[in-house]
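seq as requested:
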Amino acid sequence: MLLKIGSIGDDVKKVQTKLGLKVDGSFGPATNRAVKDWQAANGLKADGIVGDGTWSKMFAVIAARDEDGNLFDDDGNPIEIDSSADQVVSSDASTITDAAAKVPELNLDKLKGHVPDAVIAQIPDCVTKFQINTPLRLAHFLAQCAHESAGFKATQENLNYSASGLNKIFGKYFRTVNAANYARQPEKIASRVYANRMGNGDEASKDGYKYRGRGYIQLTGKNNYAEFDKSIDDDVVANPDLVASKYALLSAAWYWNSRSLNNSADKGASDAVVTEVTKKVNGGTIGLADRIQHFREYYSVLA
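struct tokens:
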């Protein structure tokens, strides 16, 4: 994979769509600038070239999730994420310095080596807009985001189900249609299972796919995109891919705020509090041990 100025084709269109640009399939100066901005914001070398590293991070996916928040592989088998061995992406030191200067009370520089620099750079907005403004709140928040996104690596939902996976997880949506006709077709799958709810239109509208899960804690459904949109200047209803490419952490902070999770986080640093927060994020306690491990790591450096 190598896209740069002068490249043309469907892959260029995919990048332009992801970045909320005019989609013409021609990699020109505007696309180059947007790629550089995205790379800088995501802890990559900002050279404006879409190689394998940029492509894989730009279009990373997270495991499929049922309506209760449980994670599954493509065949519908339950899985748990263990992100304890994830590698942290390094960035320019000024990224952390700038972020730390904006919220000096949180000592964000101490997170270096524990959280990707590109994520640290996004924390000040979360502090300002959603009051995730104490070491305790931030440690709880980051712990949940780290687990849900497999170590801040994945920013959008995987819907590449097999037929058996569809019947196991979303069986009620395939009682009157043959799941095999939808298997391994994410757009068709999302358009069906998310149709006529969360503000989405019917299956034919394809809103379910347009507003599928994105961000470190999956923002899903047109209504949620519209509510989050009120917190930012960009139009993520018109350009939903921006949630994955630009607002992965801030959209998670919006979700956190919408569930009043600061109130839960304020209860303390015990495993019981992490469990309470996990239930509100996940709907259960999937991956609890990993979430606790992340919380202890982040709180130990922030407190």
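The two ends are 43 Å apart (CA to CA).
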